[in-house]
Amino acid sequence: MSATAEEEGVIGAAKAFVEIWAQTALVVIDDYGCTYTCDEADVLAELFRACNWNETADDLIREHAADDGCLEEHPGYGGEVEAA
Ligand SMILES: [Zn+2]
Q1: CB 65 within 8 A of CB 77
Q2: Which side of the chain, N or C, has fewer Cβ within a 10 Å radius?
């Protein structure tokens, strides 16, 4: 089954988003002093993994969990969390 033109547009936009946000998602936390909710971190990490940005996905969860102390809420992540 092939993708429709609309689906291909969504896929292309998602790939472009990931290319930019793979560089930006981690910087946002430090530069703006903000954090992601667990759900926000999970869906963003999932999108990165789907596009083969696995290291970025792990870095995102690690940074997020270091701030929130919630690594147990992210069972898909296998890395170590550094103290904040
Ligand atoms: Zn979390």
Answers
A1: yes
A2: N
